[in-house]
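Friendly challenge for the regulars: who can give me the structure tokens for this chain first? No prize, just bragging rights.
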Amino acid sequence: MTFRARVGVSRISKNLNPAQAGYTRSVRNAMLEVERNLSLFLIDLKKVTPEILIDSLTPTFKKSLVYVPKKTLALMHSGYLEVRERGTVIQAELGYGRGGIPHYAVYVHEATWIPHQAPTRSKYLQAAIEEDIDAIAKRVVKGYQKKTGMK
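First reply, four minutes later:
Bragging rights claimed.
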């Protein structure tokens, strides 16, 4: 993850006025330190992001574990929370029934007509996320504030 700051022409060609070319070079050189510092900050953010996402989503995952039906416990035990890095993308995933095991995970989630004994319910994952969405955002912000010392 890097940052670039640019002002003026993107390429200094032979046809460019020498004064403008010199000034553009001067501005670019002055911006190198700013670019370097911001790039280092962005790299640091990327390093702490997986931990912040796990910390921010764990309470929501725990809430979904309360809501998930527990008739056989297989559905509950299929729950997971993980963060993966793929290239420059950091992806958090919270779910149940990965790979179709147990095969009924999506059916139980979507079957709103099936009665459940509270607090278990259909839409067990969706409800936890929807109820917690504002709190998740606040936890992410607080996580970055704590890790970076920024307010």
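The radius of gyration is 24 Å. Strands lie at 80-86, 89-95. Your move, everyone else.
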